[in-house]
Design brief:
Blueprint (H helix, E strand, L loop, with lengths): L2 H8 L9 E9 L2 E4 H8 L5 H6 L3 E4 L5 H15 L9 E5 L10 H9 L8 E3 L6 H14 L5 E8 L10 H4 L5 E8 L10 E9 L7 E2 L23 E2 L1 H23 L8 E4 L4 H11 L10 H4 L6 H11 L8 E8 L3 E8 L1
Parallel strand pairs: 4-5, 4-6, 11-12
Antiparallel strand pairs: 1-7, 2-3, 6-7, 8-13, 9-10, 12-13
Helix pairs in contact: 1-8, 4-5
C-alpha cells in the first residue's frame, strides 16, 4: 500500500453526510465534430483519429462562452428539480478552462442567469478535472454544517480553443460541454441511509507539469515574458507519464477510499468515472474487474469534457435509469496536479 493510501486508511470514518440529488442538466456545444471530419481536416487516413483517441464525435463550441454553457445546464437542472433560482442558497462553479482570469466563472454564470440570481453567493472551486468532485464534497460539508440548505453546482468547460493539433493524442480526446446538479441534505422524504459515505483526495505534484496550460496567469503574463504568448495558451500533456502515475497509485487509493466507506469493491453497484481517455477507462474497468454495465462510459460520444466530464456521466446514468435508489456509487477521477479524487455515495 502506498504512503498516501496508508495515511488515508488511518483517518477516522467521516460518517454519513446526507445528500440528495434533486435535479441535473447538461448543455452540449452547438457544433459537433466527428473523428472522420478531423481525419479529412488533418490529412490522415480514414479512421485514424478515432483509433488513436477513442472518440467518435465531440462537441466544439465556437459561439458561446463557458458561462453561457454553464447557465444553460443550470437552468435545465433547476427545471428537473422543479425549483427556481430563488430556491437555491449557493452557486458553486467548477471549471478548468476559465472564460477569463478574473472574475471567477461562478460570477460570470451568475450574470448569465439574470436578475433572479441577484445577491446569491457564488464562487469557484478550482481542481481541473476533479472540480465537480471537490465541489460536491465541499457543498455537502457546508450543508451538514448548516451554512447552506440547497446548492447549485455547475461545471462548464471549453477546451477546444486551446488544443494543439500537432499532438493528436492530447487534442483529439477533448470535447466541450457543461453539466449542473442541484443538491440538498435531504428532507422528510429522503431515505435515511442516502448520502455521502466517504470522500478522499490526493495530489502527487511530481506530475504537476504533466498536464498544463502555462499561460493565463501571472507567471507567463505577456508583460513578463520574451517569447510568443500563443503557444503558452495551448494545452500540453504527457499522457504516458500521467497514465504511469495513475496506474501506480489508483488501486490503493480506491481501496483506502472504500475502507473509509466500510465497503468492499464488490459492494459498489455503479462506477461513474471522469471520462479521461479511452485508455484510462479501460484500465479502470480491468482494475476493478467490473462488467461494462457497472461503469458509466460516455467517452465515445462526448470525449473528455474536463470538469464537466464526470457530472455529464452522472447525469447520463440518472437519465437512462442506471442510477437507482439504494445503490452504492463510486465517483472517481484524476486531474492535473496530478491529483486523485473519489466519493462514495449511497443513492
Amino acid at each position: 500500500m502506498s504512503v498516501m493510501a496508508s495515511s488515508l486508511a488511518m483517518l477516522p470514518a467521516a460518517g454519513l453526510r446526507p445528500l440528495r440529488l434533486l435535479g441535473s442538466g447538461t448543455a452540449g456545444a452547438l457544433d459537433a465534430v466527428t473523428s472522420a471530419a478531423l481525419d479529412a481536416r488533418l490529412g490522415l487516413p480514414p479512421g485514424s483519429v478515432e483509433k488513436r483517441s477513442g472518440v467518435q464525435v465531440r462537441g466544439v463550441e465556437t459561439r458561446r462562452s463557458a458561462a453561457e454553457l454553464g447557465a444553460a445546464a443550470a437552468r435545465e437542472a433547476l427545471a428537473a428539480a422543479a425549483l427556481d433560482l430563488t430556491d437555491v442558497d449557493l452557486l458553486m462553479a467548477a471549471s478548468a478552462t476559465m472564460d477569463q482570469a478574473m472574475p471567477c466563472n461562478a460570477a460570470l454564470i451568475h450574470r448569465e442567469l439574470g436578475a433572479a440570481a441577484r445577491g446569491l453567493p457564488a464562487f469557484d472551486v478550482g481542481a481541473s478535472c476533479l472540480g465537480f468532485l471537490v465541489a460536491l464534497d465541499t457543498a455537502t460539508a457546508l450543508i451538514a454544517a448548516g451554512r447552506y440548505r440547497r446548492v447549485l453546482i455547475v461545471a462548464a468547460d471549453i477546451a477546444s480553443c486551446g488544443l494543439d493539433w500537432d499532438h493528436l493524442e492530447a487534442s483529439a480526446i477533448f470535447g466541450d460541454g457543461a453539466a449542473a446538479f442541484v443538491i440538498d441534505g435531504g428532507g422528510s422524504g429522503a431515505a435515511p441511509s442516502a448520502g455521502l459515505l466517504a470522500a478522499a483526495f490526493a495530489t502527487y505534484s511530481e506530475g504537476a507539469h504533466f498536464c498544463e496550460i502555462r499561460g493565463g496567469g501571472s507567471r507567463y503574463h505577456p508583460s513578463r515574458i520574451h517569447e510568443p504568448f500563443a503557444p503558452l495558451a495551448r494545452f500540453r500533456m504527457d499522457g504516458q507519464a500521467v497514465f504511469r502515475l495513475a496506474a501506480h497509485h489508483l488501486g490503493d487509493f480506491i481501496d483506502a477510499l472504500l475502507a473509509r466507506a466500510g465497503l468492499e469493491r464488490q459492494a459498489i453497484d455503479l462506477v461513474v468515472p471522469h471520462q479521461a481517455s479511452r485508455h484510462g477507462l479501460d484500465f479502470l474497468r480491468r482494475l476493478l474487474r467490473f462488467p461494462a454495465a457497472r461503469l458509466v462510459d460516455i467517452f465515445a460520444t462526448h470525449g473528455n469534457q474536463v470538469a464537466a466530464s464526470l457530472p455529464s456521466a452522472l447525469h447520463a446514468a440518472r437519465a437512462d435509469g442506471r442510477l437507482q435508489a439504494g445503490m452504492n456509487v463510486l465517483l472517481i477521477g484524476t486531474g492535473a496536479g496530478v491529483s486523485f479524487g473519489g466519493l462514495v455515495l449511497r443513492s
